[in-house]
Amino acid sequence: MPLAQTATTVPVVVNDDLCIADKGCTVCVDVCPLDVLRIVEKDNGKKTAYMKYDECWYCMPCEADCPTDAVTVNLPYLLK
Amino acid sequence: MDEILDGLTQIDCDILVIGGGTAGPMAALKAKRKNPEANVVLLDKANVKRSGAISMGMDGLNNSVIPGYATPEQYTKEITIANDGICDQAAVYRYAQECYGIIQELDSFGIRFQKDQNGEYDVKKVHHIGTYVLPMPNGDTVKKALYRQLRKARINIINRFMATRLLTGEGRVAGAICVNTRSAEFLVVRAKAVIMGLGAAGRLGLPTSGYLYGTYENASNSGEGYAMAYHAGAGLANLECYQINPLIKDYNGPACAYVAGPMGGYTANASGERFIECDYWSGQMMQEFYDELQGGKGPVYLKLNHLAEETISEIERVLHIVERPTRGHFHEGRGTDYRKQMIEMHISEIGFCSGHSASGVFVDEHARTTIPGLYAAGDMANVPHNYMLGAFTNGAFAGLDAADFVANVDFAAFDKGEVDAERARVMAPTKRDDGVPPNQIEYKTRRLVNDYLQPPKVTAKMELAQQRFEEVRDDMQHGMYVRDAHELMRALEASTILDCAEMAAAASMYRTESRWGLYHNRVEYERDDENWFCHTMLTKGEDGKPAHEKQDVKPYIVEIAEDEKDAYYKQRVGATSSVAAE
Amino acid sequence: MTAVDQLFEDFDDIADLAEGLDDPSPGARIMAVIELADTADPAAIPFIARAITDDDAGVRKQAAQALTDFDGVETAAALVSALDDDDPAVIDAAARSLTELKDPKSGGAILPHLSAANDVKLRACLAGIKELRRVEAMGPAIAALQHVSAEVREQAVGVIGWLQDESALPALRDAAKDADVKVRRTALSALGFSKSDHAEATLVNALADPEWMVREAAAETLAKTGGASCIAALRGVLGDEYWQVRLKAVRSLGKLRATEAAMEIGPMMDVPVPNLRKECAAALGELAVPETAQFLEKYADDRDPDVRKNVRWALEKLAA
């Protein structure tokens, strides 16, 4: 069976103006117990963290440990 | 990242600790300190900095046995009663004797416990007999402090490798096969001893929200420890004694009665009245909770709105900062305020977890499993009700014993064919062009768990579950499809979850009586002490299916009076020697 | 690079990591601080201490946070210096890290600042020295009880309480009359270590405090002092307008085995506050005065399970 592309809202939001992934920072990616964050290069060539997989326990280390307060953890829509 | 690579590396170590959450780091530290020459490797599928059940911290110790507040004898008695008598007391008693030393050691690590204005531990009374609760108002520093100790001790840490199978040979443990969660490369670790601290099977039932990861336990705790122990031939005890917890509905995080209780909050029904009879967290208590939910007096609420503003502010500070900080966001989003209304509660999905219940990989008071050289500690081992402090303390026992064990043995030889077979099993979903993604396999398994295994347990429903699990297993083995290494990790978890679901069904079918309140409420059977006052041991049978046998409860160290043995079962207070609850 | 090439977490050379502190980009310097902290190697302290004076506030904040992972005089000195920062986030981080120090020797760097003119700095230094239990802090802490800031005074009381020194009782007694509620409450709780009449007299007086939280703290702490006057005083607040105060008084009377209070606690079983009724039943059981059975018997089948259990337990004690 082929796969579909189903949209889903993700709870973790990264402010890419504050994110310093460009400087080699991967703190949020490192600390996520479920490993759902990744670094991506944007169109302007700057890198930022983002939530790649909608598999979040809303536990917060990514937000708490971000050195520039760029990460916000919202509650997944299904349970909020 | 996430691209699937082909690779296989082998390393050797004296002690391999799998799981860097709570028990694992303590095991690694204790082993290394006892035997500084030993090569100790700590492996985690996440990053040790923030992995495990206490990823973001913990708001208190629920079961501290501190001189002057509780005695090891009192505690052992309480836990035995809470488990309807099915308890090998040696491990509980040793924990109770040594956990105070662990508290002091954690304190020296910089993990902070509540102290009064004279700097003494500020222990709170919540339970009926003893006083066991030590709050941690700044408990968000636990993991950082642990990590610091691991670095100082120069423990070798391997992050983002998931152990998938244990290796055995010569009648003992030989190591583990692991796969990288971001590249699918294989790592074979030969080890003289293996300590498992892999946490609960927290992704077994499906939470009411339907969100796969909105579980009560940390969703990364998907039960690998149970599955690996099973496939290696270890015994698992009393798996029919599920974990079910009270929680904040939908948010699915703990209501934290241990925080709110000493400050005057309580669990109430829709009329705002207390209804829980049971003295200690147990299956009986959960049965009462369930009855209230279903019985027309529900829903059930966390009641704080009778407290003063100053008290509520302090409760909010602790509950919303430590352990599950998003809880503040949740209440804000819902517009719920502890001051104005009671907060709706519910019960959790089912899982395996000895932290709050009693099932798990069978261990003795040294954290030894039934396989020589293989240890287990924390939520996955069957020391009942051991919570976070139990994980630390039993983890310490495992590390100390393993340090001795490795001094006298060399690596056990194992069959290389096992590695090839495991590589083939693991990589199968990467070899297909399309098929069923792991999230659908997982969703279906867990939905079936809710439909058919959630108590009250009905034989015919559990038989249906077993049939349907077979079908899902067939789909998984022949049709599961993944596109990258991350999805492969989820596929492996789906397989673990299915293993756990099958064990839950099989164990529940075997014990033909009701016991532990809601945890094993089999509606067709009464409690039957004559035939079932025993452990049930589940192992992997010759046919590859779960096999069962009874195992005697070891003679008690701390005697329990006849009329106290089933005090919780009868939902009444014991007649003697108890102290009133505060 | 594949995953197995970097199997283990690194134990990098400190000097190599420290080179990142000279990077022109603040983000890169933040990363260097994080990596230095992750080494958990005390050799990293001087470099992080240097970063706490960085031009960029984000780097300074990260350095102040990072020092939570270390201990000792050098760490403490760097944190104290950060309390003079002009960015509140840096000061907050440094103040928090100061409270995480464990080694009493670290206090050497804090002691000279216990008379700092800056309120925020003084408060943080007092909070930092508290758990280190340095006796030299007693003098400055007593002096700080006169400080204009209530937050400073509260921390000063904490320092004195942790030192558990009878000679500081007059200071705590004064603090128990402080204008600020939290200071009074903290001071009363801090008196718990003392068995002296002075401490008890102070606690007894506080039972008449206008603020309920102060009266509550006094009623609770009186169970620890346990001298001649406290029972009469606790009986005096059994009619307090706040149930929270009455609850603590009942509990303390139970712990003190104050059988003379039993006939006053008995009728309180009728007060429609579940937490209080539960406590009264427990205390009546502890006191075990046979005449109180009349107050308990009518609630042996109370709707509230906690009350019912304590009542039945108490009745057993009375009968025994």
UniProtKB/TrEMBL annotation, chain A:
<keyword id="KW-0479">Metal-binding</keyword>
<dbReference type="InterPro" id="IPR017900">
    <property type="entry name" value="4Fe4S_Fe_S_CS"/>
</dbReference>
<keyword id="KW-0408">Iron</keyword>
<feature type="domain" description="4Fe-4S ferredoxin-type">
    <location>
        <begin position="10"/>
        <end position="42"/>
    </location>
</feature>
<dbReference type="InterPro" id="IPR050157">
    <property type="entry name" value="PSI_iron-sulfur_center"/>
</dbReference>
<dbReference type="InterPro" id="IPR017896">
    <property type="entry name" value="4Fe4S_Fe-S-bd"/>
</dbReference>
<keyword id="KW-0411">Iron-sulfur</keyword>
<feature type="domain" description="4Fe-4S ferredoxin-type">
    <location>
        <begin position="47"/>
        <end position="76"/>
    </location>
</feature>
<keyword id="KW-0004">4Fe-4S</keyword>
<dbReference type="Pfam" id="PF12838">
    <property type="entry name" value="Fer4_7"/>
</dbReference>
<protein>
    <submittedName>
        <fullName>Ferredoxin family protein</fullName>
    </submittedName>
</protein>
Automatic annotation (TrEMBL), chain B:
<feature type="domain" description="Fumarate reductase/succinate dehydrogenase flavoprotein-like C-terminal">
    <location>
        <begin position="449"/>
        <end position="558"/>
    </location>
</feature>
<keyword id="KW-0560">Oxidoreductase</keyword>
<protein>
    <submittedName>
        <fullName>Fumarate reductase/succinate dehydrogenase flavoprotein subunit</fullName>
    </submittedName>
</protein>
<dbReference type="InterPro" id="IPR037099">
    <property type="entry name" value="Fum_R/Succ_DH_flav-like_C_sf"/>
</dbReference>
<dbReference type="InterPro" id="IPR015939">
    <property type="entry name" value="Fum_Rdtase/Succ_DH_flav-like_C"/>
</dbReference>
<feature type="domain" description="FAD-dependent oxidoreductase 2 FAD-binding">
    <location>
        <begin position="14"/>
        <end position="382"/>
    </location>
</feature>
<dbReference type="InterPro" id="IPR030664">
    <property type="entry name" value="SdhA/FrdA/AprA"/>
</dbReference>
<keyword id="KW-0285">Flavoprotein</keyword>
<dbReference type="Pfam" id="PF00890">
    <property type="entry name" value="FAD_binding_2"/>
</dbReference>
<dbReference type="InterPro" id="IPR036188">
    <property type="entry name" value="FAD/NAD-bd_sf"/>
</dbReference>
<dbReference type="InterPro" id="IPR003953">
    <property type="entry name" value="FAD-dep_OxRdtase_2_FAD-bd"/>
</dbReference>
<dbReference type="Pfam" id="PF02910">
    <property type="entry name" value="Succ_DH_flav_C"/>
</dbReference>
